[in-house]
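If you are new to this repository, start here. Below is one unmodified record pulled from the training split, so you can see the exact layout before writing a loader.
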Amino acid sequence: MAIVLGAARLIFNFKLECKANDNDECLKPEKLMTKWSERDDFLYPRSAYHGEVKPENLVFNANIQEFAQKVSYIASLETAGKMTEREAYHEIKRLFKQLKRTKKELGIAEN
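And here is the target side for that same chain:
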């Protein structure tokens, strides 16, 4: 629900920005897609993978990056007082268990 509201707010603010500049050009689909792409790059940053290129390693790397992003969000929510320390701890612990489970399922050895 929060993501949907955030996306709606982003579109609304973008439309206001276009109208304030009296520029209907920025409401074209290709301009909106560029704006969405910039937002996704900001909200969901990805780093290049430099390890051994195997499908399971690439999947696990994506999982680690997603884990790190979620931990960052949880830490921010806890810092802002939107989540208790206990809730943050348990959520991070749950995410870590999920990451360990995927590592095991992918058959990635301990190094």
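Two things worth knowing about this chain: The chain has four helices and no strands. The mean pLDDT is 77.
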